Structures are given as C-alpha cells and as structure tokens.
Write the structure tokens for this entry.
Amino acid sequence: MSTFVRRSLGAVTLLISAGAAAQAAPEGLAYRFGLGIEHSDNIARRPIAVAETVLSPSLGFAYMVQGASGEFEAAGNTSYRHYQQGRFDDEWLNQLGASGRWIFVPERLSWEMQAAISDQPINPFGTDGPGNRQRTEVINTGPTLALRPSATTRVLAELRYLKTGAERTPEFDGDRLAANVRGFLALNPRSTVSAELEGSDVRYDRVGATPDYRRENAFLKWAYQGRRGEWSANGGYSRARFDRPVSGNDRRVSIPLISIGAAYRIGELGRFEMQLDRGFGDSAQDLLDAVPRAEEFSLPIGRPMLRGGFVSGDLFKQTGGRFGFSRRDETLYLRFDALWRRQEYLQSTGLDQTIRGFTISANRQVRATFSLGAQAGVEWRRFGQASRCDRDMRVGMVANWQSSRRTGVSLDVSHGQRSSTDAQQVYDDNRAVLTFTLVR
C-alpha cells in the first residue's frame, strides 16, 4: 500500500472518529456484507475470451452524522476478488467517498474536506478488467471564513489544499493550493446572485511529465430555489498559465466558462435533473464528482454510471451535458440518465474524445420479500487522434429475495459487448453473480 493511501485512509478514519465524537445524536451507520460467486465466459473482456469464476466478499456502507458542530458523510464499497482458476492475480476493488464540515466558530469559521478513493483504468484505451486497474486518491481540504456585512449579503473566503495520487500513472501525482472569494446578494427569499474569483497553483511530483500551471476563474452566478425546483446559471472566464508551452506554442490558454443547471420535481414522485457545462476540466475534479453518496445507499437498484474521462494530470477543455429523470413510489423505481461530453486535452491530444450514452434502470417490488430489477445502457465513444470509435452495450436483470429482515440472496445476470473500429477491443461477455447478503 502506498504512503499516500495510508495517509488518506488514516485521515479519513480520524475525521470519521472526530465527526462521530462531535455529534450528540449521530444519524447512523448502514452497511451491507456480501459474499458473491461470479462466473463469466470472458472475465477480462478481451477479443480472446477467458472464462473464470470469482469468489468475492464485499462490504458496502453509508454513514451520516449532522449536528450543531458540523456534518459528515461517507459511503462506498470494497471487495476482494479471488480468481478460482488462478488465471489472474487476486485484487482489491474500492470506491469510497467522504465529505465533512466542522464548525469552529458558528457562522464564521469552518473546516471542510472531500476525499475520493477509487479504481480506474491504467490503459485509457483498454477495457475494464483484471490487469487494467489502479488505485487513485484525491483529498481536498481547507478552512472557510464567512462574513455577513448585512442581512442580504454574505462573503465566503476559502483556502484549499488538494492532493492527488495514482498507483500506475505517476504524472497524476501532485499538489495544488487554491484560494477563492465569493460574494452573495439575496435578491429575495428565493433568488441569489453571486460573484466569484478563484485562483489555483498546480504542481506535479514528476518533473517534465505534465507542466505545472496556474489557473484563474472569474464568473457571476444566478440561483433560484422554488417550491418544486432549483435553477442556476453561471457565466465568466477561465485562464490557465503553464510553465512551458502547450497547445502548439502557447503558454496561456483562455476560454469562456458557462454552466446551467436545473433540478425540478414532477408531481410528488418524479424528479428531473439537467446540467450543461463549458470550461476547463481535469481528472481530479471528475473523481471527486463521481464518489458514492450516502443518499444512494438505499436505492432499490444501483444507478449505473456512464464513464467519464481518463486519469491524467493534463487539463482539458470540456463541453457537454447530463440529463436525468427518476421516479419512485412504494413498489416501482425508474431512472434514466443521458450524457454527452467532448474533451479536448491541452497536451495529451491523443486522449481527445467525444462520449455519448444513456442508461435505464427499473426495479419492481413484486412482493414484500421479492423484487425484480433490470438495467440497460449504451455508450458511444470517439477518439479524435486515433480515429477510433467504440460502442459499449450492457443489459442485465437482478432478482432479490429477502429471506429475513437482515439476510437476503440476489442473482444478477448480464450481457455486455463492445464493437470497435479497433479489432483488438471487440468483446462479448456473459456473467452471472449469486450474492448472499447481511444488511443492517
């Protein structure tokens, strides 16, 4: 285990303990132990199929605590995969996220933290399978000072330190220091306008692999919170200044920054979400945005995630949007997600890509002790420099039997396939997973 992983886990453990001790009435811990038996006729998702059976104990959890002195939440899952035929090395897989805020002086001074630990591809052009996974970590932490000059205005000053690390992508390892100032003006009880200035200094551990840079953002934001929904719009400018030329012979790159978001409740049971973005992006922020959340732990069927970008220290221009719809009542859960995203890397132009895709999930509570779910998803990915196009597809069904209040059994069967202009990336994969669970 790397030094950074040990520091990360130690810091998260310390913060969990501190958060729990600081709160008089914790909202509790939920967890799920599982023992899975998985068989696949193409476990590595390669053109030449290799069948394998995997024994996989796992733990999923969600923890939330909130009180006068702060709030903390953590969620995720970890599993150990033992390959029965020994064709691949056993491995740990983890996806963990944590966030917290500790109040030192009420309405004045607090300390905030975000952390993400996950497994990501080593080869960005390969498939998700044994031999192509690496551990990544991102921790973002620092103080926030709040001032309230008047009843309708508020000023926030933030200082953040961010640490990134990856097992097999050393150009991702680095540190950054960021500071920003935000001013808020309440137009009325439901709408607010704000202005923000942000600057960050990014330094990488490996000299010469990825150029260090400084980045400045300036933008205005309007936000409205109604009885049924939330709306927001950002507009501004973003500039990056590199220590050596990128994007041809330039050392400075500037682009407009635009973001539009909406979340709207349809009736009492449905919810629509939308996000459109134009600006700079990077892998560290992608990893923080994709962490598991405690509120998703109780979903009757896991929400499939459309893939994002690659683990890289390079900055990229991004244009895209996400759309989602969900509906949940006592017996039925439906979820639809769609994504479009264009990424243009400033230095590693071979990673340029355009992603389009959608996923559909449904779960039906047939009886009190039995539910049936289904998922389907398609993703199209075009790589700019490689002139390569992939299409990934997955369909699956899952049946859950609750044998008692705390124990259950699930059976998950799925089919996945990839078609590609690169013959070395084509595969078909059929899987079945039988899992015994213990739930709190």
Confidence is low (pLDDT under 50) at residues 1-26. The radius of gyration is 23 Å.
